Amino acid sequence: MAVPAQMTRPEEEPLSGLALDGIPAGVLVLDPSGQVLFASAPAVKMMGGAAENVASDTVSSDDFPRREVFDLLHKACETQSPVTRLVTFDRECRHYILVSAGMLPEGSGEKGMAVLLMDLTDAVAQGDMAKEFVRQVRHDLRSPLTSMRGAVDLLLSGRMGPLDEKQKKLLVLAEKASHQMTAIVSGGAAPAVTGTVREGGQGGGK
């Protein structure tokens, strides 16, 4: 069911340009006392219902930190100071609401504040999934990289038989690459590894 926008002004005084129901973020317009002059449909839905005044609102919502957000906006209206804050609350999982409020432009004909409410929960969750993916990839690469480095070191040691110069150079390149990959997988910067060939049939990094 669609949630209508909230307007507390007479129809003959529309807030032109603020019919922002098509964007996912919620928009509020408050007068200096904290009265809600306009609330877009996404804002009403996000807040769990309409609001008349952020200073005196007593409605509670299980899905939105209404009291904390409204207290923040009330203080911003009182001090006429812009504010931006990330408000979090827990409901099955952690939710993240970005609250950003600023003074209306002087030429707008209105006094008060414009407020943007954005639910960043899904965006943060996607970021967490990306971090988990990177962590898993790093974990899965450690064992094969360790095996590769061990094999290269064994070949360069000469214990598996003599190597000609071309073979040594190729193995030194593989050794350098394995060191760099290990550093990346470990989350650090790749160390500088030179490709000098060791005496006695051995090659390695400094």
State Rg. Answer: 30 Å
Cα shape: rod-shaped
Structure class = alpha+beta
Strand content: 15-25%
The top level CATH class name of the largest domain: Alpha Beta
The largest sheet is: 6 strands, antiparallel
Named CATH topology of the largest domain? Beta-Lactamase
Order of helices and strands: EEEHHEEEHH
Number of helices: 4
- The CATH architecture classification of the largest domain is 2-Layer Sandwich
- Average the pLDDT over all residues and give the rounded result: 79
Helix percentage range? 25-40%
Structural overview:
This protein is rod-shaped. The chain is an alpha+beta fold. The protein has helices spanning 41-47, 66-79, 121-157, 165-185; strands at residues 6-7, 26-30, 36-39, 83-91, 93-103, 113-119. The relative contact order is 0.10. The chain has 2 domains: 20-119, Beta-Lactamase; 128-196. The protein contains 4 helices and 6 strands, in the order E-E-E-H-H-E-E-E-H-H.
Task: Provide a short characterization of the protein structure.
With 206 residues, this protein is of the alpha+beta class.
Which keywords apply here?
single chain, Beta-Lactamase, rod-shaped, disordered C terminus
Helix-strand layout with pairing:
Elements: E1 6-7, E2 26-30, E3 36-39, H1 41-47, H2 66-79, E4 83-91, E5 93-103, E6 113-119, H3 121-157, H4 165-185
Antiparallel strand pairs: 1-3, 2-3, 2-6, 4-5, 5-6
Helix pairs in contact: 3-4
